[in-house]
Write a structure and sequence with these properties.
about 200 residues, alpha/beta, Rossmann fold, five-stranded parallel beta sheet, 5 strands, binds flavin mononucleotide
Length: about 200
């Protein structure tokens, strides 16, 4: 498969950057080709503007990202959890690139996408511990919003959300989380199911 990794972090020595690297190493070890979209390094503009809302043509920077997606069979987003949500860069990338008329054309059924099925993975470094996240229901809320709600509309099937809890914790903890990222890359499933078109 061809695997696109989308990284949202300005610091190349961050835990998020390491998670993306280890994921890609795993994917390569499994025989996949890999491509990195390093959104901060590339200066992606996450602001949704009038051109996105009302323009006659798809903005050039959005088209470039859509071309990357078009050649990918699997997509992995890596972004740190910010206030139980996406950082603005990832949020803007999702809002602008997976646009109405290209990714989806309705909001009735999250399993009906205009895109062909692609394997989808969210790797999300989070400062909180897993017991805190589960106790207060954040994990379930994010799973509903993203795994069930958002990424189904984009044809991601199967899709997996992995909260990398304790990403600011001990060295051992962070090593274990990075090993997990590599393992996820190594064991990526093929795209499956979905009701969108065969090619997109
Ligand atoms: C603005 C901001 C908001 C954050 N919000 C959360 C949060 O809601 N939940 C959480 O578990 N961690 C939160 N964190 C912690 C980050 O998720 C953590 O610092 C990050 O995963 C560490 O990875 P990095 O080294 O790649 O930045 C927040 C950090 C920042 C800077």
């Amino acid at each position: 498969m061809h695997v696109l990794t989308v990284l949202d972090h300005p610091n190349p020595t961050s835990f998020s950057a390491a998670a993306a690297t280890r994921f890609m190493e795993g994917a390569q070890a499994a025989g996949h080709t890999v491509e990195l979209a390093d959104l901060h390094a590339e200066g992606f503009n996450p602001l949704w503007t009038m051109q996105d809302a009302e323009g006659d043509e798809t903005p050039a920077d959005v088209r470039l990202e859509q071309d990357r997606i078009a050649r990918a069979d699997a997509i992995c987003l890596v972004f740190p959890l910010f206030w139980w949500g996406m950082p603005s860069m990832t949020k803007g990338w999702v809002d602008r690139v997976w646009s109405w008329g290209w990714a989806y054309d309705q909001l009735d059924d999250p399993e009906l996408s205009l895109q062909r099925p692609r394997t989808g993975v969210l790797l999300i470094p989070a400062g909180a511990r897993s017991d805190e996240i589960e106790r207060d229901g954040y994990g379930q809320a994010l799973d509903t919003t993203w795994t069930r709600g958002t990424f189904g509309y984009f044809g991601w099937s199967p899709r997996q959300m992995e909260l990398l809890c304790g990403s600011t914790g001990s060295l051992d903890r962070r090593r274990a989380l990075l090993d997990r990222c590599q393992q996820i890359g190594l064991t990526l499933p093929e795209p499956s199911g979905g009701t969108g078109p065969a090619a997109g």
